[in-house]
Amino acid sequence: MYPFLNIGPFHIQLYYVLMALALSIPLWYAPERARRTMPGQAREVADMVLWMTVACLAGFRLFHVIFELPGYYLAHPLDIFAFWKGGFVAYGGLFAAVGVAWWWIRRKHLPALATADVLAAPAALVFVVARLGCFCQGCCYGAVTTSPLGLTFPPGGTVPTPLPVHPTQLYMSGTALIILGCILLFERVLRRFYFPGLSTAIFLVCLSAFRFIVEDFRADFRGDTFLGLTVSQGLSLVLAGLGVWVFFVGKSSIQSKTDRKT
Question: Is the pLDDT of residue 12 over 80?
């Protein structure tokens, strides 16, 4: 874990550097993808992504406040704005961004599946970089393990044990990188298997499935459980269901076009 980037007399916290980098990715990558797949609406996509980024920042924080420590923030409401103390939920940002995207697509009459696919690869890349930030910070850490994959973190940091723990941040970052690779593989190499909505379905189903599993290897505080599930596991089921729905909607749209041609 390397929490600081030292440049002369300056000590810059790597977590915020990597988070800023992660949030900047869709601002250039999504419009670039839109210019190739839906060039007439690339400007609308760029504007949408800007508002999605703002919503993502708010969602990161609000989900932590509402679902993880609501009692604390009711007693200390000003601490809601003390973001430098930590307290962010990745799914909060994702759900907030999805909500804004849905609203913008309807408002601007954008093709829903094509627009969602434009966003899928940038979203995966955001998770790759953001989880590296979590690793540098030592947050979102895993449980103690004797596995050869276990890593130790420096004493005095966020991880409360000197024993090896599951590097769950790297698990999620690596998974997001594989998801990105799968999306690009179907879009660029296996084009005959691609249909609108496939990239979105791959992102939603694969990310949520792996996040559901990784939750059982984490040891940091993530709020109360319900029916034995953490909040993130419950949201993973929702996202997986959404991804399956997108898959069948996209598949059926292709089938309908084929039937009309014949």
Answer: no
